[in-house]
Amino acid sequence: MRRDLFDEEHLLFRETVREFLTREVVPHHAQWEKDGIVPREVWKKAGELGMFGFSVPEEFGGAGITDFRYNAVVLEEITRIGATGLGFSLHNDVMAPYFVDLTNDEQKQRWLPGFASGELITAIAMTEPGAGSDLQGIRTTALREGDHYVVNGQKTFITNGINSDLVVVVAKTDPAAGARGTTLLVVERGMEGFSRGRNLEKIGMHAQDTAELFFENVRVPVANRLGDEDGQGFVQLMHNLPQERLSIAVGGVAAAESVLETTIEYCRNRKAFGKNIGQFQNTRFLLAELATEVEIARHYVDKCIVALNAGELTAVDAAKAKWWTTELQTKVIDRCLQLHGGYGYMLEYPVAKAWLDSRVQTIYGGTTEIMKEIIGRSFGF
Ligand SMILES: Cc1cc2nc3c(=O)[nH]c(=O)nc-3n(C[C@H](O)[C@H](O)[C@H](O)COP(=O)(O)OP(=O)(O)OC[C@H]3O[C@@H](n4cnc5c(N)ncnc54)[C@H](O)[C@@H]3O)c2cc1C
């Protein structure tokens, strides 16, 4: 079915992004996988091209357009080439609402130009060694002392953890108040007492810097708090998580589509028992099932993008998109790997890397089980 989500300008932008990635990313990504990190220069080059902060107002160097279709274009193109090291979607899709919607004028002036130019890389630090799904269980504290908060604690699994300049840290300003005592603070590179731990070794996404962060008596000015008062952090997180989950779903469908496409090509060419393997009924039925599911997923996710643009995407709809598309993604890639036989197990074949890179999709941004909890709760049992 024809995809009618995009207008002419999105299609033109897609060509620009594709050309940029072909030139600046494809030739280097394998090396970045070995390095465990993407160089900052590629962020700056992407920023020059206008790939960041679409919703950042023009006066601060952005495009001033709130249209998630542009975010989708960037993420789909990155996914198509398997450049899972680029933490652009975390910056664009997840962090932009924190920096654009929750900042005051003074903060906008300080941070938004760098956000849009790619000179200030962002991250969000929710997860701790002892608390992931159960965010209310976080133990990092930010206790007020005059016009500063003193931050103590530890975070883990933080995307862009090494490269980031601005980290939105979820901390308890009133540890006795539960979720209502949670506040978001922007911790900046170089603040005394803020250090990075290991760039964690993962099973996939090897070029992505995912790190531990440590905070030891870090004095964060009150001027770095997101929002007007203490204790708003949980509400702010709950407001922004649907967009994060939709972003993961967009990536999930794009990855499944891309692997399916290369697998169909593989099945056209690979021979066994005197036939192309695509001529076996089992192969055709399997590909038929996967192609059907991916296309249905695509249309649901596109509807979610339209709903997000209209301010109507609910937490439940985003949870449905997130769990279903990412479970589908891992299934599609696993089945496609099987169709590659032994070659599917070889890292030189894109399907093998996709299999490793995709595994985390059902985990981060809220696990499949947590998504089902969110949906299940909506029935009001
Ligand atoms: C590569 C990577 C990048 C990440 N990036 C970031 C980031 O940038 N910022 C950030 O803050 N975090 C990040 N995370 C953390 C991620 O969001 C968490 O790992 C995830 O939310 C799960 O938390 P957990 O690992 O503590 O698992 P746990 O919460 O310990 O869950 C373990 C298992 O128990 C299940 N479970 C938990 N609670 C329930 C329940 N109520 N009902 C049923 N089952 C349940 C889970 O579904 C899971 O299967 C990242 C993680 C990875 C791996």
UniProtKB/TrEMBL annotation:
Cofactor(s) listed: FAD
Acyl-CoA oxidase/dehydrogenase middle domain sequence ranges: 123-218
Acyl-CoA dehydrogenase/oxidase N-terminal domain mapped to chain residues: 8-119
Flavoprotein in keyword set: yes
Domain of life per record: Bacteria
A GO molecular-function annotation: flavin adenine dinucleotide binding
Database matches in InterPro entries: Acyl-CoA_DH_CS (IPR006089), Acyl-CoA_Oxase/DH_mid-dom (IPR006091), Acyl-CoA_Oxase/DH_mid-dom_sf (IPR046373), AcylCo_DH-like_C (IPR036250), AcylCo_DH/oxidase_C (IPR009075), AcylCoA_DH/ox_N (IPR013786), AcylCoA_DH/ox_N_sf (IPR037069), AcylCoA_DH/oxidase_NM_dom_sf (IPR009100)
Family stated for the protein in its record: Belongs to the acyl-CoA dehydrogenase family.
UniProt protein name: Acyl-CoA dehydrogenase
